[in-house]
Amino acid sequence: MRSRLWLALVVCLAAGTAYAQANLDATVAAHRTDAADIAAIQALLAAYTTSVGAGDEAAFEALLLSRDIPFSHSGAVSRGQAPETRNYPQFRQAIFASGKRYAQTFHNVRISQDEDLAEVSLDFVTRDLTDGTAGYGWKVLHLLKVKGQWKIAAEFYTGRALPKD
């Protein structure tokens, strides 16, 4: 009899623990987000591709928290080079100061947001309008909402040549 009571107690404790864990998981996963913030983040992404396409360095930099943010191709770090991630100057040189024109499109955009912090994960295609070459990859943007405006606080990306048709 005593072993049955003990077994019943263990089963009740296990069930209670599972219920409490499910409630905790639901609470922890409940990010505070709203449609206006998602729309503002989507507008930032549209401004990103527009400014790259127009070669508008000032408009692009207005999207950044600062010009000194982590901004890097993932391979620059993973290949054993110096682990410097503040590589925006190289991006700026290639995209805005090279004299070339680019068109960039975003695909499979996924936005996660909780209050004033957001993460955007997306696939991209960048076409060099000067010579017709293209590249593609994946990028992750970390955004912060500062004084009511979403800003890019970090960007990391992969990239490789798009196979020719």
TrEMBL record:
Please give the coiled-coil regions recorded for this protein: none
Residues that span the membrane, as ranges: none
Lineage top rank: taxon: Bacteria
**InterPro entries, alphabetized:** FrzH/put_lumazine-bd (IPR039437), NTF2-like_dom_sf (IPR032710)
Show the Pfam families listed in the entry.
Lumazine_bd_2 (PF12893)
Signal peptide region: 1-20
> Is DNA-binding one of the keywords UniProt gives this record?
no
Which UniProt keywords are listed?
Signal
Signal keyword on record:
yes
Name the record gives this protein: Putative lumazine-binding protein
What is the taxonomic lineage of the source species?
A: Bacteria, Pseudomonadati, Pseudomonadota, Alphaproteobacteria, Rhodospirillales
